[in-house]
Amino acid sequence: MSRVSDTRLRTREAAINLVAAGRRPHELTVDLIYAEIKQGSRTTINDELKLWKDEQAKADALNSILPPAVANAMMNTWTIAIEHGEKVFEQRREELENELATALQSAQELEDSLTNKQEEITSLQAQSMAYRVEIETLRNEVANSRSAADKAQAQVTALAQQLESSRNEEEQRLALAKAEYQQRIAELQSTITTQEQAFRTEIDKVTMRLEGVQKHIMLQLTEARDSTKRVEATLAKANLKNEELSVRSEQLAAKLTVQTEESRGIRAELEQACQENRQLRGEYDLLIQQHAIQTGKSAAQIEQIEAMERRAIGAETRLEDVLKRTTRPSKREKKGKSSGD
């Protein structure tokens, strides 16, 4: 509720209270009402007080005509209707004022929007002109691009023909090179097969030679054992002779010691030769297995076999030297024989 309507309502209430306090309606003044309510303008209080006095005059006239109960009921109804009308009027006026303010604000916003739209239209018109110029330029560029594209298409066609010709030439070269490589591969395979057969033949020969060397070494070992037995028999005879000839015991003992040492050396050399023979045999078997796995290393294996053969020949030579030393009588033995004679 606004302050004006509140002032009018309180003006009526103050007037009713003053009448109830004993004052007559025509005695009420603006100052008395203002002193009671202490708000509002005197003009509003004066207007409302005049209306109230007129209503009271009409009520007094009705009271003189109508019964008091009916007159009071009518006055109460009239008062309520007036108050309700004032409230509705004030509410509607506030709504209209709000709507007016909203409408004014909307109008201002529409004016601002219209100004912005006009500026946008001006800008869009300028952009439209620029776009038209740009479209015309693009049309010219498209025409130029089409002519350039036609030229490029012709060049692409020529390049495609050249590429096809080059491809055919390369395919022919590739076919010739492939045939040549296949021929060379066949020749290499034939050469490898021939070399492998030759390597196998050579290995068989080396195997036979090693077997012969092994047999020869075994024969020499047998002879060495026989020589050892002969030495042992000689030692036995020397022992018997030592028993018989106590005078020559010291000489025979020295001779026996020398022969025993030589016999031990011979046995050690024989055992070393046997060990080298077994080692050579093991290396030979290993080379045969490696040849079965890797045929490409035949040349190296042949060299190793030849080295083994040389080592076997060296061992054979050492055995021969040992046998010669065994069979050859020592200087002391010769001296003993000469002194015995």
TrEMBL record:
<dbReference type="Pfam" id="PF11740">
    <property type="entry name" value="KfrA_N"/>
</dbReference>
<feature type="domain" description="KfrA N-terminal DNA-binding">
    <location>
        <begin position="11"/>
        <end position="118"/>
    </location>
</feature>
<feature type="region of interest" description="Disordered">
    <location>
        <begin position="319"/>
        <end position="341"/>
    </location>
</feature>
<protein>
    <submittedName>
        <fullName>Plasmid replication DNA-binding protein KfrA</fullName>
    </submittedName>
</protein>
<dbReference type="InterPro" id="IPR021104">
    <property type="entry name" value="KfrA_DNA-bd_N"/>
</dbReference>
<keyword id="KW-0238">DNA-binding</keyword>
<feature type="compositionally biased region" description="Basic residues">
    <location>
        <begin position="325"/>
        <end position="335"/>
    </location>
</feature>
<dbReference type="GO" id="GO:0003677">
    <property type="term" value="F:DNA binding"/>
</dbReference>
<keyword id="KW-0175">Coiled coil</keyword>
<feature type="coiled-coil region">
    <location>
        <begin position="86"/>
        <end position="198"/>
    </location>
</feature>
